[in-house]
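Intended use. Records like the one below are meant for learning the mapping from a protein sequence to its folded structure. Do not use them to infer anything beyond what is encoded.
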Amino acid sequence: MHDNRYYKILVGLAAAGLIIGTWGVVNVLLFGKRATALGSYVPWGLWVAVYLFFLGLTAGAFLITILTYVFRVRIFAPIGPLSAFTVLVAITCEVIIISFDLGHFSRVWRFLINPGWTSMIFWMVVFTNAMIIIYALECYFLLRESLVQGAQAEGTPARWLYRLLSFGKTDFTEADRQADHRRVRLLSIISLPVGLIFYGINGAIFAILLNRPIWNGALTPLLFIVTALLSGGALITFLTYIFKVDDALVHYLGHVIRFLLVVFLFLEALQFFVGYRTGMPINRASLDIIAFGPYWWVFWVFHILLGSALPLYLLSFRHESAQAVAAACFLIIITFIAVRLNFVIPDQAVYKLEGLEATFYHWRLRTDQYFPNLNEWLVSLWVFSLGLLAFMLGSKYLPIVSAGKGEAEHVEA
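Structure written out for the chain above:
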């Protein structure tokens, strides 16, 4: 991708986003949650939705690495290193955005020396860091052969970086190659239970909240899994097309994305059907806010029309075109933040105690007036730009694509 004309444009946009978003980052670091539009009744807002968005992006890439290096599915081998790098970048962005939401950076030391062993958030932090360590090592061992070879080759872009990451190693033998593949397989095997617990804990944090009818339900964990695989799988499919890895693989993944999209829409329709059929006012109120509230267009225009109907058409009737499949996946990716916003915010926009809205009067004690302020949007822009810049620079200066070309011969069918 770094050879085409869009690389400089994307890097420029990412750099501009970092510069613009810095204003919001500085404000939040100086003033904490006071610089946001969050309050006592709506404590989770845009940043939690962005966190869930990045969480979903990791899931598809995580699944590809598991299929490639644990179950040794040959067809995914060319995008194995790309998937591992995607997991690493997306999880890093997750950590950054949720750190802003949690706040109180100066109190991290207390969290480390006096952890809450029964806290879901504590275990979320533990397994998040475990995933970062696992995938950082996995990326390194997947790329090490190319790094060593590039460090010795004349004309290698950023050759100094290759030498640095080679740690002085000047040759790479067949024994080294086999050893690294064993390490990658071992790390992937370890990542399987770690990743399942990681995604399960994130879903459980929402599902155990009894006074949130959309969150608290048997469908929530299943929706978490399907939505994560859908958005993450769409990202990997789009990247497979952009990096021109294999058009046949794009077609194959397109069929998988279409199936996941249909399943997701069915589960979402089931959630609405069950919610309305219960007849409980709190359930109906939350669903009414999503479908008919002041931000109805987020649901109907961005999610249903642009993020579901149009991609489903392209994946069903234009699936023979790799470009159409990539376009459908791109639409799913960029509109999926609407799905996350509709999951996080509307369930908090309903008063859970009758008369509570008339008891105290303060704008931070309202559920119907939350909308992300400028600082929240700027911080989100900063994190998105950081992730984009890291991915673009990595795709140019690290052999994450070229390393995948030699993977198929080492992966057993």
